[in-house]
Amino acid sequence: MKLMKKLAVTAVAILALGTSANADKLDKIISKGKIRCGVVLDFPPMGYRDTKNKPAGFDVEYCKDLSKALGVELELKSMSFAQRLPALNAGKVDVVIGSTSDTLARAKSAGFSIPYFVFKLQVMVKKDSGINTFADLKGKKITAALSTTPETEFLKNAKGMGWDSANYFSSKSESDTHLALLQGKADAIVTTDTTIVELLKLDKYKNYKAGPFVPNYDDFVSIIVKRTEYGMINYMNLFIHQQIRTGRYEELNKMFYGNSPVRKLTVDGIYY
């Protein structure tokens, strides 16, 4: 009888331990009362520092909205594009809202939500560069931020057109690409159309212009969590739906993109 009681107590303890160990990330965030949200702060207007050096931007607002929806404290973690997946998988952040393109290669190591924004990939050049079409980039010094879709899509197109990519070089961060252009180390940078609009507002870029688009590519971006956190992925999907249905998505578009049309997050024949 005593043996049976001991076995029963042990079984309950093991079950309780297993339940605790198997609690998903969403449960743990709510229990802890805090969410650590990774953002990229050299990618305006999605992420940047304002005049008071405080984090600001579309992605920052989404982090704030997410913490509010969960009813927990927000801890923002600044990172470069290249640091997003490593930081997530090392457990340094719980979620990344950092304009992460939804590629199949990345999906092997991270869990992706439905898209929450979409960009066009575009080139920025000097006004007198003579670069007016994508074909004009052949043989030019080009850079993009390391481990980004602008980089991979440019290189894919360059390879497809039979170009020698020896003149291409990666920059460590988005801000490093901007500096390379200003310093003349690059003839052109590849980034997003939205970033170029913001840069051209600055006086130091008065001699620059928006150049050709990277052909045939819409850059859909997602919120990312650990690949195995299905509860988190489901919550992020519903969160994005709610942002759109409540009008918050449209509100933030107006806040950061003025009167530009709200970007649609769907693809013909596919429902996100």
3D structure, described in words:
This protein has 272 residues and is α/β, with parallel strands linked by helices. It has 2 domains: 24-118 and 220-257, D-Maltodextrin-Binding Protein, domain 2, CATH 3.40.190; 120-218, D-Maltodextrin-Binding Protein, domain 2 (3-Layer(aba) Sandwich), CATH 3.40.190. Helix content is 37%, strand content 26%. It has 9 helices and 10 strands. The strands form 2 sheets. Strands 4-1-5-10-6-9-7-8 form an 8-stranded mixed β-sheet, sandwiched between helices. Strands 2-3 form a two-stranded antiparallel sheet. The longest helix has 20 residues, at 2-21. The N and C termini lie far apart (58 Å). The model is unreliable at 3-20 (pLDDT under 50).
What CATH calls the topology of the largest domain is D-Maltodextrin-Binding Protein, domain 2
Outline, from the CA principal axes?
Answer: globular
What Rg, in angstroms, do the CA atoms define?
22 Å
Low-confidence stretches: 3-20
Q: How would you sum up the major sheet?
A: 8 strands, mixed
Record field, number of beta strands: 10
Identify the CATH homologous superfamily of the largest domain. Answer: Periplasmic binding protein-like II
As laid out across the biggest beta sheet, the strand order is 4-1-5-10-6-9-7-8
**H/E element order:** HHEEEHEHEEEHEHEHEHH
Helix-residue proportion: 25-40%
Count of structural domains: 2
Q: What's the architecture of the largest domain in CATH terms? A: 3-Layer(aba) Sandwich
Mean pLDDT: 91
| Head-to-tail CA distance between termini | 58 Å
What is the CATH C level class of the largest domain, in words? Alpha Beta
